[in-house]
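protien #1 (seq + structre)
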Amino acid sequence: MPRPVWSGAISFGLVTIPIKVLPATESHNISFHQYHLDDMGRIRYRKICELDGKQLRDDEIGKAFEVSKDTLIEITDEDLANMPLPTAKAIEIVAFVPADSIDPIRISNGYYLAAGGAVSAKPYTLLRKALERSSKVAVAKFAWHGRERLGLLRVKDDAIVLHAMRWPDEIRSPETLAPDPVEVGDSEIDGAVALMEAMSEDDISGYRDHYREALEEVIAAKAEGKTPPRAEDETRPAGEVVDLMAALNASVQAAKESRGESGEHATVHDMPTSKKRAAKKTAAKKTAAKKTTTKKAAAKKTSGRKPRSA
């Protein structure tokens, strides 16, 4: 397991649970160095003091806040550690909410919370089992890296996971992103739903990062002095109009065939177009009007007859 990134406690009402925070994810990204095109020399960034021109080590660099031009206020690590803030040394649970009430766009990095010794085993297990039984997640506040954050605690297997969350005012509104209103037919929606059903899966653990694999092939080839592999040009011609129903039918067929399923029922059938539906409505109105006229004529004829003598 990786090294802990933070140690503290979970504050749960009057219960305090010592914990250690460990990264729950890892990055497999391939990183690059910058270099000089002329001589392949590495490009490095140095921290230089603008007053004396000296290059500084990390232990010679501190934090400061600029209150006005040329006026800096030094802020030390001790100042930050001793702030009168409950969440500075604890992950403070403030509420329990249904899991589906949290918008996924607000969820950020994940961390495992490990019990901090034998004394925390029972309260840690108590919180985990209570979360499982309630089917809820905990909303918490904590302070890391110079700011207070919002967090979400949930259960994964036998561990408690902490997800950093964005504050509500950090989420941009998508109101201006919606396209202009367009008409989407029922047949097109049915086709999209059929494609979703054909592509449904219960397990996505088998997916891999093909970009990284392809990049590793490029690096290996160039390291051996070979020409790296090239992708075939499959660019769609500009301005090509796509038949949406045909694309949906083909996609459903391909999805079923990739699963080894029969494609007999893969076709998305066309629904009546808006003109056909309008024509049917007009015909129905004419039929109804004709029936009404016939009834009125029959009623008028009946009312005009003289009553028979007894």
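ok now protien #2
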Amino acid sequence: MPRPIWSGAISFGLVTIPIKVLNATENHDISFRQVHLEDMGRIRYRKICEVDGKQLSDNEIIKGYEVAKDQLVAITDEDLADMPLPTAKAIDIVAFVPAESIDPVRLGDSFYLQADGQVAAKPYKLLRQALDRSAKVAVAKFALRGRERLGLLRVKEDVIVLHSMHWPDEIRSPASLAPPAVEIGDSEVDGALALMDAMGQDDISHYTDHYREALEEVIAAKAEGKQPAPAAEEPEAGGQVVDLMAALNASVAQARESRGEGEHATVHEMPEPKKAAKKAAKKTPAKKTAAKKTPAKETAAKKTAAKKTTAARRKPRRAS
């Protein structure tokens, strides 16, 4: 596990829970150095004072705030440490709210909270079980990296997780980004739901960063003095799809194929567009009405009358 980045306590009413804060995520990005193309010399940035032209070390540099043009006031680390901030060393819980009431857009970095010592074990477990049983999350204030933040506490397995949150006035409104008004038919919504069902998964832990893997292969090849393998040619993009239902049908078929599902796929069948279904119904010829069966008695009477007529014709005439 990583080293703690902050130590303090959770303030839960009159209950205090000593904790350590640890990063819950790690960065796997590949970093590069800037170099001179001709001789591969590294490009370095030096901190130069614009007044006397001297290069400065970090211990000679402090923070400054520009209160007016070309007028700066110095802010030292001591100034920041001595501020009367109650959340300087505490995660102060201010409210408990339903988890679904939190907009995910407001969530930021994630941290694990570790109980600090045996004295913290019981109150830590108490808060964890209370959060888990209530299906609520805790909203808290805390100070980290030079600023007061809003946070959210929730339970992940047996650990309490702290998510930093953006303040309400930091969230931009998406109202101006909505697309123009268009009509969507019920059959198209049903088609989208069928596609969602075909693409449904219970576990996404198998996904990996293919870009980083390809970049590592490029770096390894270059380090050995080889040229990286050429990228496979991607198929040309087709024209714009106008028929939305056709695109949904093709997407469902593709999703089934990628999951190895054939005729016995457990996904819902794609619905037929309602307009098309009505047209098909009109074109389908009506079934011919079956001919009425002649009753048996009527048929027998007709046969008897026919025999009598034939016999009368065959009878010889008498001589006059």
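The beta strands are 6-12, 15-23, 63-68, 71-75, 90-98, 107-115, 136-144, 147-156, 159-165.
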